[in-house]
Write a structure and sequence with these properties.
Elements (H helix, E strand, L loop, with lengths): L11 H8 L3 H11 L9 H16 L3 E21 L2 E3 L2 E2 L6 E10 L5 H5 L7 E5 L4 H9 L4 E5 L29 E4 L1 H12 L4 E22 L4 E11 L7 H18 L8 E8 L8 H9 L1 H7 E6 L15 E2 L4 H12 L6 E2 L15 E2 L12 H9 L24 H20 L7 H19 L6 H21 L7 H23 L21 H5 L7 H35 L1
Parallel strand pairs: 4-5, 5-6, 6-7, 9-10, 9-11, 11-14, 12-13
Antiparallel strand pairs: 1-2, 1-8, 3-7, 4-8, 8-10
Helix pairs in contact: 2-7, 2-12, 7-12, 10-12, 13-14, 13-15, 14-17, 15-17
């Protein structure tokens, strides 16, 4: 791993706080949270919520256990038979229930575009390597497949295969999967391929999934800051689980409780409020809990939330990689400084995909992390799949036991769990106590410029983005000047600090959606990966069309409208910066 030493020094106060992190307490929290299977909307899950609530109330948090209707999907029985041979399998959340669906199985290998173009899958069951992801199921459906079988690794991995983020609405309910989906182990995959290859390729699938609205809990716990109590940092993680889910997400919940326990002892040092948020509906509702919370508190979040920090799947055995986790460019320094100071590792970070409880980009809230530690890269089938799901492809994900029956207490390394807790604690403490909000807006602008340049390269002669690039460069210059001015602000000038913080938050409200939101900021984009500045994604379609066709003109017109939105957003962002610069002179 890369090492360097130029990190912000841990202060005496910070070190005192970090020394109080208790490995025994973390493991005790984990055992209590993960002692039952916690399917969304069940009594077992609710008991875990009530345990967390009691722990936080005991150390002085104000808590509220809320309930909302979540569209929840709980997989049941699944069966696969080929040539009168049964293959053990599982089905997936949000997939279609099917009774004895019979069709020809066609082997697509990795299921890439080329594999589909070379095979007619209409009315057939597609067989492919990998994890059952929404994108892969969507592609199979669009190609006319009747069902899908995924070959996992040594264990089958529970998944939710819908791309619809949170509760569907009339425009997205039609995007819910309408084919049955199952997964089998690598060993069974080899046996199945042998049969299919020998011509015995008629498969019979049976799947049972219960998908309906259920009341699901959300736990909110808060301690007030002393300087800007109306501003808060949100620290969130889901409680629901696949099987016992000790790592996913028991240890993460334990970190939340330990961070809460410790920061409650130092609450007089907090400038801003700390809000802990525990979600349901993550695993079985495609983030329905966090999405519903955003819908119900959109204005509060956009006006008062300084930063969202998420925690997931922490403290796993062998989780030695702390350099690849998800971040925004503007929050990367927070992770870089904390991880560097505590471990010496050089955090690089990777751009967020559309996964985890990242339901708050539309509010303009900067975000950091899903998990912070991962497995080293490996060549086994599980690691290969995970490297594409997590990070930037340079890690092995959260462990081969992720989303399996094997996510049990023996997969946790207490020392790594304590290490991960310290990383989160230091980041949160600094964000809550530093006078100026530690968000690097220059890095955000530069990330947007890089995204614009990539779109221009792709668009070529089809579309001219020079105005966007010009405005982004002007914004970069203004933000550079602002960062220089900020270094001259006195820590005792509370009014000037307040104005700058308001400007930094206002800037995020333009830059975060510009860089991460494709559609309306009041809705939730699909759980499908997208490039930076996704409002320009119409370019992907435009460049494939005949310039003389009506379709090209339709696409071009849509792009012009989104181009206008990008340009005006950049103009508004620059106005925010220029306004605060005038006040600072």
């Amino acid at each position: 791993m890369s090492k360097m030493t130029a990190f912000k020094e841990v202060t005496e106060k910070e070190n005192q706080l970090l020394e109080e992190v208790s490995k025994d307490q973390l493991m005790d929290f984990t055992r209590n949270i993960a002692k039952e299977v916690r399917l969304s909307g069940t009594e077992e899950e609710l008991r875990a919520f009530e345990y967390a609530k009691a722990q936080l109330e005991a150390v002085g948090f104000e808590t509220e256990l809320q309930f909302t209707n979540g569209y929840i999907s709980l997989p049941g029985k699944a069966a696969l038979k080929v040539d009168d041979v049964d293959f053990e399998c599982i089905t997936h959340a949000m997939a279609l229930s099917a009774e004895n669906l019979t069709a020809e199985i066609i082997d697509l290998g990795l299921g890439k575009d080329a594999d589909y173009s070379e095979n007619n899958v209409q009315g057939k069951i597609v067989l492919m390597d990998g994890i059952a992801t929404p994108g892969a199921v969507k592609k199979a459906t669009e190609q006319g497949a009747k069902g899908a079988i995924f070959i996992n690794a040594d264990y089958t991995h529970e998944m939710i295969v819908s791309p619809v983020w949170g509760t569907p609405v009339p425009d997205t309910v039609k995007l819910l999967p309408n084919i049955p989906v199952i997964s089998i182990t690598n060993a069974n995959g080899k046996r199945l391929r042998e049969k299919v290859g020998s011509g015995k390729n008629t498969g019979e699938m049976h799947t049972e999934i219960e998908t309906r609205f259920r009341p699901i809990p959300t736990l909110i716990a808060e301690i007030q800051g002393t300087v800007e109590p109306d501003k808060f940092v949100m620290f969130s993680g889901h409680i629901d689980s696949w099987h016992y889910g000790v790592m996913d997400n028991g240890t993460a919940n334990a970190i939340m409780l330990e961070v809460g326990r410790l920061l409650s002892k130092y609450k007089e040092q907090l400038h801003r409020s700390l809000r802990l948020a525990f979600w349901s509906g993550h695993s079985h509702g495609r983030y329905s809990g966090s999405a519903a919370y955003c819908d119900a508190h959109w204005e509060e979040l956009t006006e008062h939330c300084v930063l969202h920090v998420n925690v997931d799947s922490s403290g796993g055995k062998g989780a030695t990689v702390l350099t690849e986790s998800n971040c925004m460019k503007e929050t990367r320094d927070l992770a870089r400084e904390a991880i560097g100071a505590l471990t010496g590792d050089l955090f690089r970070g990777s751009r967020f995909g559309r996964s985890g409880d990242q339901s708050f980009w539309g509010t303009g809230t900067p975000s950091l992390f899903m998990g912070c530690s991962e497995q080293p890269p490996a060549t086994n089938p599980a690691a290969s799949a995970f490297s594409q799901l997590f990070g930037a492809g340079d890690s092995g994900g959260f462990g081969w036991w992720w989303h399996t029956t094997e996510d049990t207490l023996d997969k946790i390394d207490p020392d790594y769990l304590k290490r991960d807790c310290k990383v989160y604690l230091l980041i949160l403490y600094r964000t809550l106590t530093e006078a100026l909000i530690p968000i690097n807006q220059l890095a955000a602008v530069e990330d947007i410029i890089e995204g614009l340049q990539k779109w221009q390269e792709k668009a070529g002669e089809h579309f001219d983005l020079s105005l966007s690039l010009k405005r982004a460069d002007e914004l970069r210059k203004s933000v550079t000047t602002l960062q220089d001015e900020i270094t001259e602000i006195s820590v005792n000038d509370q009014e000037e600090i307040r104005r700058v913080n308001e400007a930094l938050m206002a800037l995020s409200r333009f830059l975060v959606p510009l860089n991460y939101v494709k559609n309306s900021v009041f809705n939730h984009d699909l759980a499908l990966n997208q490039q930076a500045v996704p409002k320009l994604s119409e370019i992907d379609r435009l460049i494939t069309l005949d310039k003389e066709s009506d379709a090209y003109q339709f696409s071009y017109t849509a792009l012009v409208r989104n181009f206008n939105e990008v340009n005006y957003t950049l103009k508004q962002a620059k106005r925010v910066v220029d306004s605060i610069l005038v006040q600072l002179k």
